[in-house]
Design a protein that fits this description.
By secondary structure, the chain is α+β, with helices and mostly antiparallel strands. The protein has seven helices and eight strands, in the order ααααβααββαβββββ.
Length: 216
């Protein structure tokens, strides 16, 4: 047989690959979204800065919805955020941090910090668990001054925190315990957004007795 008559073996099939693409980037969108649901807030933000494909995946609304349900308690089950779940997650995270700052101010009994924390307006109101009611910025801060002078430092253990955030208003409901043996405080904090930051405009604290009666 002549050498020219010998046929070369068939070439191996060519597998198409995306040049430079990672295995994560080659997954179908549904699997990618499911995988991203296991990431925390910081990891999801870092992932969005790697490249355009991962930025698109990390900005997917379903991924942020899953993260919201993992990190926060939803105040309204049927809610659909106007600006998407990523924006709503960021807004909820911000108001949760502000709400935590309120309790840090109480623990430190810092009257200057409390004064700056409240919106300087006549319509702000504060109702303490003792039943004392204060209206207007000056009276509200005087009420906190009385509380700080009369009480020892209080370390609230906050639980069952739920937040609802609108464009320029938010409210947070929660239970707060001082001692395990005492009845919990039921609290509502209302905030308004002014000049780039959140201010408290209303605080209501009540003690729920064992028989279900509420003391204001």
């Amino acid at each position: 047989m002549a050498v020219a008559d010998v046929k070369p073996p068939p070439a191996a099939p060519v597998v198409e690959r995306q040049t430079g693409a990672s295995m994560m980037e080659q997954l179908v969108p549904e699997i990618t979204t499911h995988a991203l649901s296991y990431l925390d807030y910081s990891s999801l933000c870092r992932l969005s800065m790697t490249n355009s494909l991962m930025r698109k995946a990390a900005n997917d609304d379903n991924a942020w919805k899953a993260l919201y349900h993992k990190d926060f308690t939803l105040e309204q089950d049927t809610m659909t955020p106007v600006n998407g779940w990523k924006a709503y997650y960021a807004a909820t995270r911000a108001i949760m941090n502000v709400n935590a700052q309120f309790f840090n101010i109480i623990r430190e009994r810092s009257l200057p910090a409390m004064s700056l924390f409240w919106l300087n307006a006549d319509y702000v109101k504060c109702i303490h668990a003792t039943g004392e009611h204060f209206s207007g910025h000056t009276a509200v801060i005087q009420g906190w001054e009385l509380a700080f002078n009369m009480e020892q430092g209080v370390d609230f253990q906050v639980r069952d925190v739920r937040a609802r955030v609108l464009t320029d208003m938010a409210w947070v409901t929660m239970k707060a315990d001082v001692n395990i043996d005492d009845e919990p405080f039921y609290m509502t904090n209302v905030f308004e957004f002014h000049n780039g930051r959140w201010y408290m405009v209303h605080h209501h604290s009540s003690v729920m007795l064992g028989d279900g009666d509420m003391v204001e």
